[in-house]
Every structure is written in structure tokens, then in C-alpha cells.
Amino acid sequence: MASPFVSWMNRLLKECPDDPRCAFIGPPPLGNFFWVRGEEVEQRLLRFFRCERPEMKIMDLKHLIGEAKRQTTIEGPWRAVATEMALEELMRGEADVYFQVPLYHPELGLFGIADFILRRPAADGGVEFAIWDTKLALHPRPYFLTQLAAYAECLEFLLRARGSEAAVESIGLVLGESAADHGLAHELSANEVRPYFRQLWARFRVAQEHFDPAGSPPDPADTATAALSQWSPYAKKLFSERDDLALVAGLTRLQRRKLMAAGYDTMHSLASLRPSQLKRFSKVTGIGEKSLQKLRLQAYLQCQTLSSGRTASRLRPGARLALAALPAVDKGDVFFDLEGTPLPPPQAAREYLLGVSTRDGVYHDWWAHDAEKERDAFRDFLSWLKERRRRFPALHVYHYGSYEASAFRRLRRDPGMQDVFDDITTLFQENVLVDLYAVVKNSLALGLPGYGLKNIEHFYRPKRETEVTGGADSMVVYQQWMDDPDGHDWQSSGKLHSIRDYNQDDCESTRQLLSWLRRRCSTLLSSRGDASATDGNEEEADGEEEGPDEVVDNWKAANPAAEMQKALRALKKAASEACAV
């Protein structure tokens, strides 16, 4: 339910694997990185029950699928057989925790395997069940709740069919490895969630009943980019073929819907808007005039790039201020980049590599393979930087995107890093950190699909040749090293060496970007005079990934109960919209 487009394409692949559209399926994002880590969350919760709650008996039911398939090879019956065997165990009540429980609802056509079902005494002296699901994610999402509600719907149906008075009282999410280590689930009443699930499921079944492999899939632009999964290549193909507004860098799904409602459904139609129309069009669409101005310009430049084969560019109205804010060149300047993972296992390092290059190309690196070593790595880096600032008081630390600054803010909140609190605070108070992404975004409009470093670096350097070519690759390779080390450091490990090469390349690219910005933009400014006065002519340049990798800051203090209610409200809204269609 996270993506009607993905559901449709998955069914097409299952029923018509030779359909030409199925050839556009890509590899799983990040390989099986998240799948493997998700399995680990399950195992950690199992270990919690076994070690911390030895009085609770655990029954593992994952063998039931194999047993059922040996009894019958027909899909419907083996699902029913496996579920019947699981239900027998639940009703017998010889355990408190049931793991990997098959659940089948023949009337709704639902089948799934619940991670955990807990059998508990009810307030009236009877029995009640809680269904828990483990997730690697640290925040609840609406479709997590639909999955749990589906399990609850199945189990309630099965209990009623047996004449049992037991009920599914609650559903719970165990979010992340740390929560699993402590047996912590955030629960909601099952009856709060099930009605919204039924509405969504009814809508889903109607869509499935009308599935026509000769037809077109649902609009992929209604799906968040991350949720497109393996079908992202086909979605991009569709966007390109229909000149979709989704191609416009920085345009949100809500803005797209508003523009389409006003009759502007292609990138070229948005680009054709005249500046004199923007004020009236802003009132029609409900999109702010300044936002419309930026979106129109972005669409215009991307269209120019497509037609000319060379990347169009334009100085933004505030370019002079943005470029003037660049610090003066200093011999001590350094270029900084981090390699990390947004979801580290407990006690593991979140940032496993800190890399920095100097102006003369000397590269320094600090590695960390656990949380304490990570603190030490940052301390060592800060000590190195403090010493360098004594020699070069006017130096700055350049980076691309907000990730590096966010990492320092997180560290400043870390009780284990209070000894360097003042050193970190100084970086912000004295504006030592300079985010070149902000400089690019505030000074240049580029006819590119995104403003990530990999997009813009072809302006000033040849194509990369490192083995690791992106932050996602770095995470996967690092996880592979964690699972199967081929050496203890970067000198002895080919995997760590490839990550180091990539990080060094990012640092060097950031240095080259700064030089290019100074050269390119000074030329543009001197040739055009006041940048804020220009609004119509394009400047050519040359072109190519997505804005800087933004990783959710999961260190922010969270209110689990409030987050669960927020996910429930989003689910309620989705159900309401499904009924309105």
C-alpha cells in the first residue's frame, strides 16, 4: 500500500514476466543491506525474550510453511494448512511468545507472516493477543500500521471462526536494534487501526480486480522516490516519455498536484509560464509566487538543457550576496567529508570514516568501527583541526550538504562528548564550517535533475573511476566488511581501501568545486553586472544525481507515542482519500 505503482508492477512481473516493461526492473536499492539488517532486529528481540525474560516461553513456528508445502503444493491450501497449524498452537497456549506466525484470511485474500504474537491474560480473566512487528527503521510509518492491522484482521477472523472469545487487543512496533535489545514496543489498540486498514484494503482489492496487464500502471509520481524501489528505472522512463513535472528538480508532489489541477502537467508547460503570469497563477494554484518563480526557472533551464545538449545555467537573484559570502582563500583551508550509516547497530559507529583534504592535496583520515572509537575519531579530528587553526587562524572547513554539520550538532548533544563541547561550539560560532551546497543553491540555477555533488562535478572534473561511486555503495561495502572482514584496516582490506578512495575523491571534488565556483561565478558576475536584475536569458555550461544525500537525523529526541499517533493520522488520511476516489 506504500505504492500502488510498485504493487501493479510487481503483479505484472509475476503474471507477465516477458512484458517489455519488466525489463526495466533494477537491482534492490542498497542490495540486501536493509533486509539483512532487518533480520538482525528480529533476532535481537528473540535474544531479549530468551535472556531477559526467561520466564516467557517462546515457540518458533517458521517451520510450519515447509510442513504445509509438503502436505499440499497448491498455494491456497498450503497457506490455509500452515495457518491452521499455527492457530492450533496459539489456542493450545503452551507459549507466551510465538515467532514467525503464518496468518491467512481466505475471505479477504490476505496472507502474511507475523514476526511476533504475544499471548497475554486479559483483564476479564480470558486471553488476549498482541501482534508485534520488528523494523530497522527508527520512526513509525503508516504502512507499518497497515501491515500490523492486516495481521490483526486475519487473527480476529480465525479466532471468531473457532468460536474463541480471545481478541487481538493491540499491535506494536519494535523500532530499531536498540529497541529490540530492550524489548521495547510502541503499541496502539488494534481496533483503532483496523477500520482504516479495511478501507484501504477494499480499495486495493478493487484495483487488483481491475488489473489489466495491457493497461497502464498507476502514476509513479504519487509515490515517494525512495518507495519506488526496484521500479525506479521504469518510473524515470515514464517521467521522461511524458515530460512529467516530476522531472523538475525540487518540485514536491503537492506542488505537482496543484500545477496539474491548474492544467500544467508537463515540464515544458511549466517552463512556458511568463513572469508576468506568475502573480495570477500563484493565486490559482495556491503556490507562493517566489516558489513558482524558482520552479518555472528550474523547468525552463532543464528544458534548455534537453534541447541544446548542454547544461543551461543562470545566476539566481541573490547570487551576488551568496558568492560574496564565500570566505577569502586561506592556505589552511580543508575539505571535509564523512562516510556513515543512518541506522548503525547498537554500539557500532554511525560515522565510520572522517576524511579531510588540504589545499595542497594531502589527505588525512580517521576510522571508527564502534561507538567509542567514533567519539575518539572525532576528538582526534577536532584536536588536529585546533592545531591547524593555530597555524592558520583564518582557515575554513568546506563540505557539501548538511550532513557534516548535522553530525557535529549530534555530537554536541552526546553526553560522552562534553569534553569537546566548546571545540564543536566554536565551529558554529566562528562560522568555520562552510556548506558549498548552500552556496550553489543560492547562487546558481542549473538545468539538472538535482544538485548533488555527483550531478554538478562534471562541470569541473572528469568522470569518477573509483570502485565505490556513491554514499549508498559506501554503506553496502562497509556492511560487507563488517560481516566478512578482508583485513583489519584500509591498508590490508580491499573493501575499506575502496571506501577510503571514494571518500578522498569526495574531498578532492569539494576542493575543485570551490575553485570552479570562484572562477565560474566571478566570470558570470563580471559579464552580467547585477545578477538580481536578470530574469530571462540563459547561459550555457556543461551536465549531471539527486540533491545532496539527506539522511534522516535519527538522533533527534523523539516522542514515540506522539509519533505513533502521527502515523495513525496519516493512515486515516490515506484511507479517507482512498474512499473519496
From TrEMBL:
It comes from the Eukaryota. Residues 527-550 are annotated as: Disordered. It holds the Pfam family RNase_H_2. Residues 536-550 have a biased composition (Acidic residues). Residues 334-517 form the YprB ribonuclease H-like domain. This is YprB ribonuclease H-like domain-containing protein. It comes from Polarella glacialis (Dinoflagellate). The lineage of its organism: Eukaryota, Sar, Alveolata, Dinophyceae, Suessiales.
